[in-house]
Amino acid sequence: MRKTVGVLAAAMLGLVTSMTVAAPASAAPSLxxxxxxxxxxxxxxxxxxxxxxEWLQLVNRGKEAINLRGYTVHNKNGRTxxxxxxxIPGKGGRVWLRSGAGDxxxxxxxxxxxxxxxxxxxxxxxxxxxxxxxxxxxxWSYVKGRDWVRCPVNP
Length: 155
Prior knowledge:
By secondary structure, this protein is an alpha+beta fold. The chain has a single domain (28-150), classed as Immunoglobulin-like, CATH 2.60.40.1260. It is 13% helix and 32% strand. It has a 5-stranded mixed β-sheet, with no helix packed on it. A 4-stranded antiparallel β-sheet has the order 5-4-9-10, with no helix packed on it. Strands 3-6 form a two-stranded antiparallel ribbon. β9 (122-128) and β10 form a beta hairpin. The radius of gyration is 21 Å and the shape is globular. Mean pLDDT is 83; it is low at 7-26.
């Protein structure tokens, strides 16, 4: 009887330990692509001003601020933006990456292109950390009349 109780106790301890150590595979990333305004309606005049209507928004749902230095965002064609010394606050902090040209601020950074980055026919935004590991992705397909997408938490 003692041996059976000991074996059961050891088995239960192992089960509880494995349940508390393992993180759920579907855990939402704290830093992610929240939404993308791609190819807004109108004609691009090539100045970059109109391209600023196109943006990608990052959100940090974690508790701590994250310095994005070395993080990258790129599209399905490999067009890449590398963040400088930009800090995104925790607890819902947001940063916008605008496609056009401008002076970076604490909340808005600029890709400094004269044209659009995101393909209206469908595209995919990849967010990678400074080591090149995927943090989050967001993809979309063409939908008539739509030029904005809110990204799923777990794509």
